[in-house]
Amino acid sequence: MFRLASSFDFDACEFFGNCEGEIMRWILGALVMSLLAGNIAVDHAQAKDPEIPAITQSMQQFVADKEIAGAVTLVVGPNSVKHVSVVGMADVAEETPLKRDTLFWIASMTKPITGACVLMLQDEGKLSVDDPISKHLPMMKKLKLADVTPANITIRHLMTHTSGMSELPRESAYTDPTLEIVAKRYAELPVMFEPGSQWRYSQTGINTAARIVEVVSGMTFDRFVEERICKPLGMADTTFYLSPEQHQRLTKTYRVVEGDGEKPKRLEEDTISVLSGDTAMNRNRFPAANWGLFSTADDYGQFCQMLLRDGRVGDEQLLSESAVQQMRTICTGDLKPGFTPGNGWAIGCCVIREPQGVTEAYTPGTFGHGGAHGTQVWIDPENEVAMILMVQRANFPNADASKVRQAFGEALMQAL
């Protein structure tokens, strides 16, 4: 029996009856070659991923306008890819094109993954998001309000930016080698307001939650993410620390420099702040749960598909349905968050409450997070889709309200 590509089985002798004779062998050989050739063409057609032309065209225009060097856009359903396109360059000077497996610094798109880690431990009964953080980190009992009264911060406050925790000086915020060490520095900072009374974006809060994950699980946070999230989901290119091979696939970061009469508008290479001047391969830095991960569009798509399936991965319930609900249900009441209007906050995620401006095209209840250099994920439970935008530009005036994000969303929603 000949076994052709795509599991096409062909029993030549059964088809022809008696296979003896030179003429029959010649006919058989010609037929097999024809079928193979035809099947290869079919396989090639099947291998082509679906594409929403309007998304690709909008990204191509942003590249042509030097707003970005390139973009990978991906749209997934619970079990399928609905769109993928790759345009532009990973390295402008070397004219190296972006590829589908190019790695990006996803920055604050790390936060939903951190939220999933916290809720996974809640599923296991090892913590509650309503636990006071001092239950797991006794040193945090030192945290005080301006009037010197104790700051009663819960894990929920940490994960919704309502803790009031202060930030470290930017130049030294990411230089410590472990979360254990940097968390001790957090414990010495003043608390700016009564926890739960205001919304103020807090990087220290998210990293404190990651330290709690370490204490409760007995694993470093980077290992917990790898073992409990990335391995079950097949996210082999999602990591805090790149291998040499992965580093070769990391896109350059750019900033836009507007034309000044002497030089035209252009893209200039920039740096990734979380690396503090080092490379993404350097392991002598703590795994920053707030914005430290690198990933690919396809890897992050696996994470989104798990959430669209209410926490399921195959026959396994990686996250409980109630945990997924906590990632998409606003728990900050009427507090007004920053960045863009009309939103509220869930565990580790922004949730669109009243679509407007950059989110106008989206469905209420869509949840996700953006990254400092323009990356974005939105997960729409009603339409059962998730959109992942991978770009790497350092100086968007407001990355959360960028024209690139808006155009992607509008093109997708019009196509649904």
Brief summary of the model shown:
The protein contains 12 helices and 16 strands. The chain has helices at 12-16, 22-47, 53-64, 110-123, 155-159, 179-186, 203-217, 221-233, 244-248, 297-308, 321-328, 403-415, and strands at 2-4, 8-10, 70-76, 81-91, 96-97, 104-105, 253-257, 266-270, 294-295, 312-313, 316-317, 343-345, 350-352, 367-370, 376-380, 385-390. It holds the Pfam family Beta-lactamase.
Describe the structure.
By secondary structure, this protein is α+β, with helices and mostly antiparallel strands. Helix content is 33%, strand content 16%. The chain has one domain: DD-peptidase/beta-lactamase superfamily (Beta-lactamase). It is built from twelve helices and 16 strands. The chain is globular and about 55 Å long. The N terminus is likely disordered.
Which terms would index this structure?
416 residues, Beta-lactamase, 33% helix, Diverse_Enzym_Activities
| Helix share, percent | 25-40%
- CATH topology tier name: Beta-lactamase
Measured by DSSP, the beta-strand proportion falls in: 15-25%
Round the Cα radius of gyration to an integer and report it: 25 Å
Total separate domains: 1
**What strand order characterises the main sheet?**
5-4-3-16-15-14-13-12
Report the CATH superfamily: DD-peptidase/beta-lactamase superfamily
Main sheet attributes: strand count, strand direction, barrel closure:
8 strands, antiparallel
